[in-house]
Amino acid sequence: LWQWGFYFTLDSSGYVFDNILSPSCIDSNDKWLMISAGMEHAFALKEDGTLWAYGDNVNFALGDTSIVVANEFTQITQNKDWKHVEAGSIYTFALNNQGELFAWGINMYGQLGIVEKNDYVEIPTKVSNETEWLSISAAKGGISDIYIFGMHSVAIKNDDKNNLICVTGANYVGQLGLGSTDQEKNTPFVCNALNVENVLLDESTDISLYPNPATTQLTLDNKDALIKEAHIYDITGRKVSRHSINANQSTLDISTLKSGLYIVKIHTEQGVLNRKVQVVR
Fold first, then answer.
1. Could you give the CA distance from residue 29 to residue 24 in angstroms, rounded to a whole number?
2. Does residue 101 contact residue 132 with C-beta atoms inside 8 Å?
3. pLDDT in tens, 156-170
4. Residue 180 sits in the same domain as residue 245
5. Are the CB atoms for 103 and 127 separated by under 8 Å?
6. Closest-CA residue to 177 (of 194, 160, 161)
7. Residue 273: phi, psi to the nearest 5?
8. Which residue among 153, 181, 209, 280 is the one 20 to 30 A from 89 at the CA level?
9. CA nearest 140: which of 191, 213, 89, 85?
10. Looking at the predicted structure, is the pLDDT value of residue 70 above 70?
11. In this structure, are 76 and 134 located in the same domain?
């Protein structure tokens, strides 16, 4: 795991500020799965499903009341079933393997989707009792002369029939797409039954693509949902083949493709996933 840019730590003398001008390795562990950075904090996910935090715990963005500043990545909660983490400006979301969505940090504009009397949620708290959450994106931002930006969130949820776009938080410049700027605070999530089949799924989605590199055949295997179709693009963005599938597993004939790198765009019931494949001859 590598880092660079402006950073700070906390020691007995107070805050220490510095700039890292080139990539610096902070952990040689090869089990890191993903990372998401906010304004002054970051979260990472390991392959074993554990959640790790780094940076300032201002407004409880780290989700642990015992931490002021985490000078190194520190495990948050003992759970080992986290699937995705998203750091907002000064708040955080995490999604587990059961499809439950958790949030913590500042909630001044309702951006956590949790109906709370307080403006802060100190520890990971379930957004709702639903288990159909597919993905989450939290706004980043800063402070301008008029507004505090980075105080809204967008999620994708499934209701057994459709994937829904769900929004919550500040709406003072219409960032929620609700057709107005009437409300500055919106909570809980407002969901619209829009067709979002083309939503990009998280890269950790359990779809196997093999062999890779491939020669004449390529197998797609999705344990969780139906694969509707797959489109293959070359590195120039030109579509070179389209395959109708409508099954959880399918083997594609790629014998006509030349050697090179390709992008496979996989359409499922839950959304779209892009994967790279190398074809060799």
1. 14
2. no
3. 887 766 678 889 988
4. no
5. yes
6. 194
7. -130, 135
8. 181
9. 89
10. yes
11. yes
Q: Identify the pLDDT of residue 204.
A: 56
Report CA-CA distances (Å) from 64 to 105, 107, 120, 200: 10, 16, 12, 31
Q: What element of type H or E holds 217?
A: strand 217-222
Residue 53 reports pLDDT greater than 50 = yes
Split at pLDDT 50, 70, 90, the class of 117 is low
State how many domains the chain has.
2
> What is the rounded average pLDDT for all residues in the chain?
86
Strand 82-87 vs strand 91-96: parallel, antiparallel, or unpaired? Answer: antiparallel
| The residue to which tokens 């587990």 are assigned | 96
User: For residue 192, how far is the Cα from the chain centroid?
Assistant: 20
Range of the domain at 271: 207-279
In a domain, 200, yes or no: no
Distance of CA 170 to the CA centre of its chain: 20
Residue 202 lies in a domain: no
SS3 249: strand
Each residue's pLDDT tens digit, 178-200: 777 766 566 788 877 555 455 55
Is 199 within a domain?
Answer: no
Higher pLDDT, 235 or 281: 281
11, HSE (Cβ side, Cα atoms, 13 Å): 4
Alpha-carbon radius of gyration of the chain: 21
